[in-house]
Amino acid sequence: MARKRFHEDDEAEVDMTPMLDIVFIMLIFFIVTTSFVKEAGFDVNKPQAAQATKKPSANIFIAVDKNGRIHMEKRVVDIKRVRANVERMLAESPEAAVMIMADVDAKHGVVIKVMDQVKAAGIDKLMVNAEGE
Question: Is the whole-model pTM more than 0.85?
Answer without folding.
Answer: no
